Amino acid sequence: MCTLEKRRNLFILTLTGDDDHRLSPSFIASILEALSKVKSQASPGSVLITTSHGKFFSNGFDLSWAQAAGSVSAAADRLMHMVHIFKPIVAELLSLPMPTIAAIAGHAAAAGFALALSHDYLFMRRDLGVLYMSEVDLGLSLPDYFTALFKSKIGSSSVRRDVLLRGMKVKGEAAVRMGIVESVHDGEDGVMEAAVRFGEQLGARNWNGEPYAEIRKSLYPEISRLLGLPEKVISISKL
User: Quick one: CA dihedral 77, 82, 83, 88, positive or negative?
Assistant: First the structure.
Protein backbone atom coordinates (compact mmCIF):
# COMPACT_ATOMS: atom_id res chain seq x y z
CA MET A 1 0.00 0.00 0.00
CA CYS A 2 2.90 2.33 0.75
CA THR A 3 6.65 2.09 0.93
CA LEU A 4 9.21 4.02 2.94
CA GLU A 5 12.70 4.68 1.58
CA LYS A 6 15.58 6.56 3.19
CA ARG A 7 17.87 8.59 0.90
CA ARG A 8 20.49 10.19 3.11
CA ASN A 9 18.46 12.74 5.10
CA LEU A 10 15.28 12.32 3.01
CA PHE A 11 12.45 9.95 3.90
CA ILE A 12 10.41 9.07 0.78
CA LEU A 13 6.89 7.79 1.55
CA THR A 14 5.25 6.47 -1.62
CA LEU A 15 1.60 5.45 -2.04
CA THR A 16 2.09 2.49 -4.36
CA GLY A 17 0.03 0.94 -7.14
CA ASP A 18 -1.88 2.33 -10.11
CA ASP A 19 -5.27 2.53 -8.38
CA ASP A 20 -6.73 5.68 -6.85
CA HIS A 21 -5.18 5.10 -3.39
CA ARG A 22 -8.46 5.12 -1.51
CA LEU A 23 -7.93 5.62 2.21
CA SER A 24 -9.37 2.39 3.59
CA PRO A 25 -8.73 1.38 7.21
CA SER A 26 -5.84 -0.85 6.15
CA PHE A 27 -4.33 1.87 3.94
CA ILE A 28 -4.63 4.42 6.76
CA ALA A 29 -2.92 1.97 9.14
CA SER A 30 -0.11 1.45 6.62
CA ILE A 31 0.54 5.21 6.29
CA LEU A 32 0.40 5.67 10.07
CA GLU A 33 2.93 2.87 10.57
CA ALA A 34 5.28 4.49 8.04
CA LEU A 35 5.00 7.88 9.76
CA SER A 36 5.78 6.24 13.09
CA LYS A 37 8.98 4.82 11.60
CA VAL A 38 9.91 8.23 10.19
CA LYS A 39 9.41 9.87 13.57
CA SER A 40 11.46 7.24 15.38
CA GLN A 41 14.38 7.67 12.97
CA ALA A 42 14.30 11.47 12.77
CA SER A 43 17.55 13.37 13.18
CA PRO A 44 18.66 16.98 12.52
CA GLY A 45 18.27 17.69 8.82
CA SER A 46 15.60 15.05 8.18
CA VAL A 47 12.86 15.80 5.63
CA LEU A 48 9.76 13.80 4.63
CA ILE A 49 8.52 13.67 1.02
CA THR A 50 5.19 11.96 0.36
CA THR A 51 4.37 10.99 -3.22
CA SER A 52 2.44 8.37 -5.19
CA HIS A 53 2.36 6.16 -8.26
CA GLY A 54 -0.21 6.49 -11.03
CA LYS A 55 -2.83 9.11 -11.84
CA PHE A 56 -3.99 9.64 -8.26
CA PHE A 57 -2.23 10.98 -5.20
CA SER A 58 -5.30 9.85 -3.28
CA ASN A 59 -9.01 9.93 -4.11
CA GLY A 60 -10.09 10.14 -0.47
CA PHE A 61 -11.81 7.70 1.85
CA ASP A 62 -12.80 4.26 0.58
CA LEU A 63 -16.50 4.94 0.03
CA SER A 64 -17.01 1.57 -1.68
CA TRP A 65 -15.95 -0.15 1.53
CA ALA A 66 -18.37 2.02 3.49
CA GLN A 67 -21.26 1.36 1.08
CA ALA A 68 -20.61 -2.39 1.21
CA ALA A 69 -21.76 -2.40 4.84
CA GLY A 70 -25.27 -3.26 3.69
CA SER A 71 -27.35 -0.42 5.10
CA VAL A 72 -27.32 3.36 5.21
CA SER A 73 -26.62 3.47 8.94
CA ALA A 74 -23.86 0.87 8.73
CA ALA A 75 -22.27 2.76 5.81
CA ALA A 76 -22.36 5.97 7.83
CA ASP A 77 -20.70 4.17 10.73
CA ARG A 78 -17.92 2.93 8.46
CA LEU A 79 -17.39 6.41 7.05
CA MET A 80 -17.18 7.90 10.53
CA HIS A 81 -14.71 5.17 11.46
CA MET A 82 -12.42 6.28 8.62
CA VAL A 83 -12.82 9.92 9.66
CA HIS A 84 -11.80 8.94 13.19
CA ILE A 85 -8.76 6.82 12.29
CA PHE A 86 -7.48 9.29 9.67
CA LYS A 87 -7.22 12.04 12.29
CA PRO A 88 -3.97 10.64 13.78
CA ILE A 89 -2.32 10.88 10.34
CA VAL A 90 -3.01 14.61 10.23
CA ALA A 91 -1.78 14.87 13.82
CA GLU A 92 1.43 12.99 13.02
CA LEU A 93 2.18 15.17 10.01
CA LEU A 94 1.54 18.41 11.90
CA SER A 95 3.76 17.31 14.78
CA LEU A 96 6.49 15.51 12.81
CA PRO A 97 9.93 16.83 13.84
CA MET A 98 11.06 17.74 10.32
CA PRO A 99 9.90 19.65 7.22
CA THR A 100 7.33 17.80 5.12
CA ILE A 101 6.68 17.98 1.38
CA ALA A 102 3.81 16.53 -0.68
CA ALA A 103 4.86 15.74 -4.26
CA ILE A 104 1.39 15.48 -5.82
CA ALA A 105 1.81 13.45 -8.99
CA GLY A 106 -1.93 13.06 -9.67
CA HIS A 107 -5.41 13.90 -8.44
CA ALA A 108 -5.90 14.63 -4.73
CA ALA A 109 -9.55 14.63 -3.66
CA ALA A 110 -11.42 14.92 -0.35
CA ALA A 111 -9.35 13.21 2.37
CA GLY A 112 -6.59 12.84 -0.23
CA PHE A 113 -6.50 16.63 -0.54
CA ALA A 114 -6.44 16.88 3.26
CA LEU A 115 -3.55 14.42 3.34
CA ALA A 116 -1.54 16.59 0.95
CA LEU A 117 -2.49 19.81 2.76
CA SER A 118 -1.21 18.38 6.04
CA HIS A 119 2.33 18.79 4.66
CA ASP A 120 4.34 22.00 4.94
CA TYR A 121 4.93 22.36 1.20
CA LEU A 122 2.97 21.11 -1.83
CA PHE A 123 4.31 20.58 -5.36
CA MET A 124 2.05 19.58 -8.27
CA ARG A 125 2.27 18.37 -11.84
CA ARG A 126 1.49 20.92 -14.51
CA ASP A 127 0.08 18.35 -16.93
CA LEU A 128 -2.07 16.13 -14.68
CA GLY A 129 -4.04 16.32 -11.50
CA VAL A 130 -6.56 18.45 -9.66
CA LEU A 131 -7.18 19.34 -6.04
CA TYR A 132 -10.85 18.75 -5.28
CA MET A 133 -13.01 18.70 -2.17
CA SER A 134 -15.92 16.54 -3.31
CA GLU A 135 -17.97 16.65 -0.11
CA VAL A 136 -20.35 19.39 -1.27
CA ASP A 137 -21.10 17.41 -4.45
CA LEU A 138 -21.59 14.18 -2.51
CA GLY A 139 -23.83 15.76 0.12
CA LEU A 140 -21.40 15.10 2.96
CA SER A 141 -20.45 17.45 5.77
CA LEU A 142 -16.83 18.15 6.69
CA PRO A 143 -15.20 16.76 9.83
CA ASP A 144 -14.29 19.56 12.21
CA TYR A 145 -10.58 18.94 11.85
CA PHE A 146 -10.83 19.13 8.03
CA THR A 147 -12.41 22.58 8.33
CA ALA A 148 -9.74 23.69 10.79
CA LEU A 149 -7.00 22.33 8.53
CA PHE A 150 -8.24 24.29 5.51
CA LYS A 151 -8.67 27.46 7.60
CA SER A 152 -5.12 27.03 8.88
CA LYS A 153 -3.41 26.22 5.59
CA ILE A 154 -5.31 28.36 3.05
CA GLY A 155 -5.18 32.01 4.03
CA SER A 156 -7.70 33.43 1.54
CA SER A 157 -11.34 33.14 2.60
CA SER A 158 -12.47 33.39 -1.02
CA VAL A 159 -10.19 30.49 -2.01
CA ARG A 160 -11.54 28.41 0.88
CA ARG A 161 -15.08 29.29 -0.24
CA ASP A 162 -14.40 28.19 -3.83
CA VAL A 163 -12.69 24.97 -2.75
CA LEU A 164 -15.16 23.93 -0.05
CA LEU A 165 -18.48 25.48 -1.10
CA ARG A 166 -18.16 25.41 -4.90
CA GLY A 167 -16.33 22.12 -5.15
CA MET A 168 -13.83 23.75 -7.51
CA LYS A 169 -11.41 21.38 -9.22
CA VAL A 170 -8.12 23.23 -8.98
CA LYS A 171 -5.37 22.47 -11.49
CA GLY A 172 -1.72 23.04 -10.77
CA GLU A 173 -1.12 26.54 -12.12
CA ALA A 174 -4.36 27.80 -10.57
CA ALA A 175 -3.31 26.23 -7.26
CA VAL A 176 -0.08 28.25 -7.38
CA ARG A 177 -2.03 31.47 -8.01
CA MET A 178 -4.38 30.62 -5.16
CA GLY A 179 -1.48 30.13 -2.78
CA ILE A 180 -2.14 26.43 -2.15
CA VAL A 181 0.97 24.93 -3.76
CA GLU A 182 4.53 26.17 -4.20
CA SER A 183 5.08 25.37 -7.86
CA VAL A 184 4.12 23.09 -10.76
CA HIS A 185 6.34 20.81 -12.83
CA ASP A 186 6.10 18.63 -15.92
CA GLY A 187 5.45 14.96 -15.42
CA GLU A 188 5.71 12.61 -12.45
CA ASP A 189 9.51 12.73 -12.58
CA GLY A 190 9.53 16.53 -12.76
CA VAL A 191 7.45 17.04 -9.65
CA MET A 192 9.48 14.48 -7.70
CA GLU A 193 12.79 15.97 -8.80
CA ALA A 194 11.62 19.41 -7.67
CA ALA A 195 10.49 18.03 -4.31
CA VAL A 196 13.82 16.24 -3.78
CA ARG A 197 15.82 19.36 -4.68
CA PHE A 198 13.79 21.45 -2.26
CA GLY A 199 14.00 18.75 0.40
CA GLU A 200 17.78 18.67 0.10
CA GLN A 201 17.88 22.46 0.48
CA LEU A 202 15.79 22.26 3.64
CA GLY A 203 17.80 19.33 4.98
CA ALA A 204 21.05 21.23 4.48
CA ARG A 205 19.86 23.69 7.14
CA ASN A 206 20.28 20.84 9.64
CA TRP A 207 17.44 22.06 11.83
CA ASN A 208 16.64 20.49 15.18
CA GLY A 209 13.29 18.80 14.59
CA GLU A 210 11.73 19.38 18.00
CA PRO A 211 11.70 23.20 17.86
CA TYR A 212 10.64 22.97 14.21
CA ALA A 213 7.57 20.92 15.18
CA GLU A 214 6.70 23.30 18.02
CA ILE A 215 6.90 26.34 15.74
CA ARG A 216 4.64 24.57 13.21
CA LYS A 217 2.04 23.80 15.87
CA SER A 218 2.12 27.41 17.09
CA LEU A 219 1.41 28.60 13.52
CA TYR A 220 -1.79 26.54 13.43
CA PRO A 221 -3.28 26.72 16.94
CA GLU A 222 -6.88 25.87 16.00
CA ILE A 223 -6.12 22.59 14.23
CA SER A 224 -3.45 21.74 16.82
CA ARG A 225 -5.99 22.06 19.63
CA LEU A 226 -8.56 19.96 17.77
CA LEU A 227 -5.94 17.27 17.22
CA GLY A 228 -4.94 17.34 20.88
CA LEU A 229 -1.33 18.23 20.11
CA PRO A 230 0.40 19.34 23.33
CA GLU A 231 2.59 22.40 23.50
CA LYS A 232 6.15 21.84 24.70
CA VAL A 233 8.64 24.32 26.06
CA ILE A 234 12.06 23.81 24.48
CA SER A 235 14.80 24.36 27.03
CA ILE A 236 18.00 26.19 26.16
CA SER A 237 19.98 23.06 27.06
CA LYS A 238 18.42 21.23 24.09
CA LEU A 239 19.45 23.86 21.57
Answer: positive
